[in-house]
Structures are given as C-alpha cells and as structure tokens.
Amino acid sequence: MDIFQIMYFPDNETIAKVEVLADLEQDVADLTVAHEAKRILWFPSELLAPEPDTDPDAFVKQLRERAKGISMPARVALALNTLTEEGLPHFHRLLATYLGGDTFWAKWTNLWTAEEDRHGAVLHDYAHDSKILDNPVLERMQFEYLKAGFEPTWDKDPYRVFVYTSLQERATQVSHANTGKLAGQYEPLIGTVLQNVAKEEARHYVFYREIFLRVLARDPNRALESAALIMPSIDMPGISMPHFREMADVIRRAGIYGPRDYIRIVEDLIKFWSIDKLEGLNEAGRKAQEKIMAITERLERVANMMETRSRAKTFSFNVAFAREFAME
Ligand SMILES: [Fe+2]
Ligand SMILES: [Fe+2]
Q1: pLDDT > 90 in the chain, percent
Q2: Which residue range is the domain that position 134 belongs to?
Q3: Count: domains in the chain
Q4: 199 Cα to the center of ligand 2, angstroms
Q5: CATH number of the domain to which 81 belongs
Q6: What is the DSSP string of 264-325?
Q7: Higher local confidence (pLDDT), 279 or 99
Q8: How far is the CA of 173 from the centre of ligand 2 (A)?
Q9: Interval 156-194: pLDDT, tens
C-alpha cells in the first residue's frame, strides 16, 4: 500500500477507501487505454492557426474584426471558463494527493493534467489573439485565484473527489459547448475551439463516472454516503474570485449554464449509477440513497425560486472592458 502514501491518511475510513481505489488499478489501466483510443490530440497553436499558405497577420486582423461582434455575456462566459481551466493546479493537487506513486492512477492523473492544460492554454491564447477581453485584468484574476488556493471540505475523502470530478467534467462540458454555440454565432473559430474542449470534457466525464460506478460496486454504503454529501450542490472552485457570483449570474441568464443544467447532470448520474436500484445496503447506505433520490426535487424548487425572483439587471466587468450591458 505504500503506493498510495497511506501515512497521510491516519483514519481507518480513508485507508479502507484508498484500498478500494488500489483494487481498481487494473480498471484504471483499461479505462485509460480506452480513453486514449478515442482521443483526438489537438494543440492550441494548431486550432488557432491560419490556413496554410495564407498571411498570418491578415488572419489575426480578420479574427479581431470578427471577434468585435462577440456579445458581452459570451465574453463573460469565456472569461470565467478560462479562469476555471486555469485553476488546474488546484485540481491536479487534489487528485495527486490520493493517486500518487508508480501506479496507473498516477499515470491517469498525469495524462488528464496534460490534456486539461491545453484547455486553459487555448482559451488564453484565443483571448490574446482576438482581444475580446482585457487580458491584463484576466491574468491578474488568474493570479489571485491560484494564490487563494482551493481547500474544499471534500478533499479529505477520495470518494467525494470522484463524485466531484464526475459532476464538474460534465458541468464544464455543458458550459464550454453552450458558450461555443453562442460566441460561435459571431466568430466561428471560437465555436470550433470550444467544441474540441467540450468533447474532451465529455471523455473525462465518461472516465470518472465509470470509476465511481466501480467504487459503488465494491463499497456501496460508503460510496453512497460520500455521494450524498457532495451531489446536493457543488461549488465551483472560482467561488472566492472577485465578481464570481455576478459572472455566474450572467452565464445563467445567457442560457449557458445554470441550476437547470446542474439538475440534468445529477439526474443523468443517478441513472448511470442506478442509485435507486442499489440493494442490500446498511442503514447509513439507505439513508444516503434516500437523500440522493430527493436532491432533484429540492433543486427544482431552488431553480424555480431563483427564476421567479430574477429581475432585469445591468452588469459591467473590468475583464470585459467595464462596458455596461443589460440582461433579462
Ligand atoms: Fe478542462
Ligand atoms: Fe476535463
């Protein structure tokens, strides 16, 4: 068990969970092979390159001209998505804490990190080329976000880490895909970029939800207890960022990502993990199962309330040149 650095996890509960993960070593190896077989390995400078034998300066000039039309809500979404991606060091650390050593887990985490690193890079490079955001402001926000750290309560529980990554990969997929559709109406290149990023998030989602399915099969009671603690709501890592809530509000109003999307994600995972059908549980497991099955109804009520109370509002963000815009 040295491979999982058990010395860092003094309690028996965590040791038991880490042992379940160690038991999944071969599964991780197989799922990684399946993942890489489906993957298209693109690179930021390829996605953002002009057609061969065309003038690169003219290409950037035309890109900037087209990008001028990108709406303020789409710019805000791009800023927040870029920052979320650039938070990668936080996430790498969370996974690497449990999945270290010379294991397939560590190989997966490193591969995943290498893939994710291109997401932040391509969005950052696009913002640089297109000039749709105030880049020095964006970079300062990124600096503050990384400096602030990310210490969620769930980082001590390896099972919750996998429920979180399942939810989060799907959430970023939806957000990138919808931002791409919206911004792509004005400037097609960003549509293509975000389509590629979204597809990769979808493949990560497939990996993590499959891992947690196998955790559920091996240790259903503890797995359900962990899931019940995290599924009711997830805080995006940028929550401590200045203006995060207002940016998230813009994104909801633009129909890019909001509570309704989160409800669908939770529903899909409940179905994929067959949570309602799990049997032979102990008392704590049954309670957790019931709690999970009640989440969507509670989230519906929250979403209804939020939509009823929502009024037209004017926004302005320094990262989007402090230009005022109104939203319903
Ligand atoms: Fe990503
Ligand atoms: Fe991802």
Answers
A1: 78
A2: 2-327
A3: 1
A4: 9
A5: 1.10.620.20
A6: HHHHHHHHHTTGGG--S--HHHHHHHHHHHTHHHHHHHHHHHHHHH---EEE--GGGTT--E
A7: 279
A8: 8
A9: 888 998 999 999 999 999 999 999 999 999 999 999 999
